[in-house]
Specification:
Blueprint: H1 3-6, H2 9-18, H3 23-41, E1 44-47, H4 51-63, E2 75-79, H5 106-113, E3 117-122, H6 156-163, E4 169-173, H7 180-186, E5 189-192, E6 213-217, H8 220-230, H9 248-257, E7 265-269, H10 279-294, E8 298-302, H11 310-325, H12 345-356, H13 359-372, H14 378-399, E9 404-408, H15 424-428, H16 435-440, E10 444-451, E11 458-464, H17 470-488
Parallel strand pairs: 2-3, 2-4, 7-8, 7-9
Antiparallel strand pairs: 1-3, 4-6, 5-6, 5-10, 9-11, 10-11
Organism: Microbacterium thalli
Family: Belongs to the amidase family. GatA subfamily.
EC number: 6.3.5.7
Amino acid sequence: MSDLTRLTAAELAARLTDGSITSVEATRAHLDRIAAVDGDVHAFLHVSDHALDVAADVDARRAAGEQLGELAGVPLAIKDVLVTTDMPSTSGSKILEGFMSPYDATVVARARAAGLVPLGKTNMDEFAMGSSTEHSAYGPTRNPWDLDRIPGGSGGGSAAAVAAFEAPIALGSDTGGSIRQPAHVTGTVGVKPTYGGVSRYGSIALASSLDQVGPVSRTVLDSALLHDVIGGHDPHDSTSLAEQWPSFAAAAREGARGDVLRGLKVGVIRELADVGFQPGVSASFRASLAAMEAQGAEIVEISAPHFEYGVAAYYLILPAEASSNLAKFDSVRFGMRLDVPGGTVEDVMSATRDAGFGDEVKRRIILGTYALSAGYYDAYYGSAQKVRTLIQRDFDEAFAQVDVIATPSAPTTAFRLGEQIDDPLQMYLNDVTTIPVNLAGVPGISIPSGLSDDDGLPVGIQFIAPARQDAQLYRVGAALEAILVDGWGGPLLDRAPILGGAR
């Protein structure tokens, strides 16, 4: 494995700027890495044919003295939920197989404008429905820590690509934990920004009131650098916040070198306790809190009594919005079309959607359509929205007492492929700690907190901040990361048995 693929995005950027490497060299190293390992990992659905040309253009512009962005020339992986003009955009579904978008998603356009080099599109659960990337129509992605285990979902492809050193950074989307839960099980960093803080324009919609695009990386600083590129107001997105955001990279650098934990009030939710959490996950969480406390943080027990209803509310709101958003894939406006000789439009539509959608997508469309139907709207969807309001109030009351909230990022380490595929309810419970963040629209970050004593697999800790205080998460995350990495004697991924070798 090339030494260049071991570098973080920030380290690559520094070497690109000082001229010790070129973007072509960095890009070729990552393409070679993809060729070497992705047959096992299956993080990518499509690898760009133009990456080296883009890299060469960045090198030429830099040589000509053009002032470029800090990440110019750094390779980037893109979750397949984000549309691109030069690569297929399928959202992990057969119904969109081969679809070429006439425009780039805003975050992709901003990444291109900043000089990042798209490597390819990463695998995902179909239309972002799942917690394991086993529901992709193109086959599952595997966890680089153990190829028999899942890499999380729905953005398991982006997390696995970063964890396997196939890309230094990636773009993901998070509807109920689809960036943070994969980060938890792959030993990477994942950030779900404040709702509206990053444009969703060009992100194939699952649940419009919950979806949020965000960064995936191996360090907190790398996520912050990418967040600086993709964030900010977008007039194409009606939910985009017209805010002036601070530099998240500056916040991460402050956290890494400053004494930001002293006096910080960290809330721990009483109702979560240890019930249902794998012992190794709970132990790692408590060890991280102790490390923060040793640096002067104050651990405060708080109550969030409505969090226990979050999963139930989410799995009414999300399917309802999904059934509406996916109605456009009808064989007429978007997607594949099956021929039904002598059939009506309804016959063609029915046959196409039956063949084009997978079981999990069908399950959620049926559930959502039922929840929105006459006579059931108030009982199900309307009631779920009321619970959502109560969860938002829980956060408001909690943040009146503490600066950030900490939870385990997920209840367990990576489970084995096939272990939960036939148990949707158990799969849904993987997002118990992440879902409330999306329901409330507040930001969350997952950073590696160590390896579980149970099985030696990665574990993450999640921090949650009030809306619009994403910078606080980068400060706190970087501060704890510095403590933990120092304790491990290096990045957590260096301890991975598969990744550390010559594979």
